[in-house]
Write a structure and sequence with these properties.
- There is one protein chain.
- The protein has 19 helices and no strands.
- It is mainly α and about 350 residues long.
- Helix 10 runs antiparallel to helix 11.
- The relative contact order is 0.11.
Length: about 350
Amino acid sequence: MSKSAGTSNPEYVNARVRSRRAGLYEEDDYRKLVRMSPAEIARFMEESPAYEDEINALGSRFSGVDLIEYALNASLAEDFEDILRWCEGKLYGHVARYLRKFDAWNVKTVLRGIYADTEREAVADDLIRAGEFDDKLLDRLLDAGAIDEAVEMLSNTVFGDTLADALDDYESTGVLVPLENAVDRAYYELLRTDDLSGEALAEYREFLEAEIDFRNAINALRLARSGADLDPAEYYIDGGVLFSPAELTQLSSNTGELIGRIRESRYGDRLSDALTELEEAESLIAFEHALEAALLEYADSLGLIHPLSVTPVVSYVLAKEREVDNIRAIARGKEAGLDPEEIEDELVIL
């Protein structure tokens, strides 16, 4: 019998996830890390149960930022493999589909690498091998010499059709947004909430709707700032509740109005502080970081309402992602010679 058949076990899985969540780094830990050297960061990680095994296993082959990078990716993959191993029944199906976000991440990472002519090793370091794509496919993608070659390699995957449809827009505009949006649309189509019913799954559906709303907001702003003659409405991702395609086009050129729409929505009460940070964001990257923090805060609040749903698991996935991204940003910032204050600006901390 497949793991997606039979009875779900949210009580057990969420108890295990709460234990892992308690071990994640807090703001004080990050303030310590930004004042450490890469070698000191690795030693700090070695003292954490989440990274001890990975640091010890990789320490004989790598050092400094390389050791940190490989340990982070290994820990992330191991963490999510553990969660899938714990899950049974429909819970397994929901979590497995959600974790395909890392396939989406890897596709976008490879496309960005080809677009920017980034060295293969640097792109490989940014891959998160925690989705369903096997190493053989990922290695083939890393060897692709052109965007259309990578798109062809993905033709038999869940991203194939939407990427093929977006290729003309990419070639006519020269910007990646149409392809990145195609990956997002394919992923969220995979997560369609039509089959989610009952109180616990209604909460998960609400979270997915929020994630799609925020993704639509980010994509529209990226399009507006790309300089390309592309209508955000044409890149609208179905499944959200906050914007219509036409409204997204209108709001994409006015960040203040877009934030106002979020503040007036069902997200407003739970995200008051996060929305204030959004209003103060001085760049698109800072705005995106603030939206990521807002989504994590929203997932946490929903998980408290119905702790035996899939939402606490998804909330942990987001939190673990943020920890890995934060540690990576600190290590790379140190390698680049940035000041602690500059590095702190790159972090997403609740």
